[in-house]
Amino acid sequence: MRIAILSRNKRLYSTRRLVEAATQRGHEVLVLDTLKCYMDIASMRPSVHYKGEQLEPFDAVIPRIGASITFYGAAVLRQFEMMGAYPVNESVALTRSRDKLRSLQILARAGIGLPLTGFANSPDSTKDLIKLVGGAPLVVKLLFGTQGKGVVLAETSKAAESLIEVFRELDANFLVQEFIKEAGGADIRAFVIGEKVVAAMMRQAKEGEFRSNLHRGGSASLVRLTPEERSTAVRAARKMGLNVSGVDLLRSNHGPVVMEVNSSPGLQGIEEATGKDVASLIIQFIEKNAKPYASRTRGQG
Length: 301
Description:
D-amino Acid Aminotransferase, Chain A, domain 1; five-stranded antiparallel β-sheet; Dna Ligase, domain 1; 32% helix; 9 helices; 16 strands; Rossmann fold; single chain; four-stranded parallel β-sheet; 3 domains
């Protein structure tokens, strides 16, 4: 098979591992810098060009698209879908997962456990918004932040009001969420491929920090999921329309709650914590499912 990986840096761990796994299984792999791809839009034969040449068709494409280039990256991915390449994650699912508000609304509609969450535009709603999520302490979260950036813990109602006021003055869109104290600064990353959790790790925040992201100094270890946690992770990935995802869960007093569903989950932390060859599992999923024009939207979404 001919497989394209959309990644801005071929030296990144996740990109390298996917190239290794695909090559070992006999596939031809090309890493494409997403921002250097350009497209022939108004044509009966859609195409993608790269470094002055028109690319030959691919059987599958693996999007490793950073949050900062979601708009352009999704456009490139749509173009590949229109050309018949099988996307590991479709462009519609990618953009859906990157919009925190939209993704939470989708999950809530499906009855999947979430922290109490509030969203408002008017400053007149601030006090009631804080009450809506159970009061302080609470978490204020930018809608388009990643890797723990733009996520702030407000210890008191006064601090929450001040923080919300600052975010509004910056014209930033944000959510207010219940702080799950019983999680103890730990969360679970469940790596879902297809209809199965293939690996899971617990991430523990460093001392004095409530965000458990590995990029912020958190540590990772192997964890055994409960049946309810597995089911929640798989259902969340399915509702988002993602074939490959990292579902972040917290263990609350009322069961597992989903914090986020990541459409481009990193491989380094999960592979090192679990010892599993997740990259090869992704390639095997492609081998089993890739067919021409097999995406549900075919670039139309």
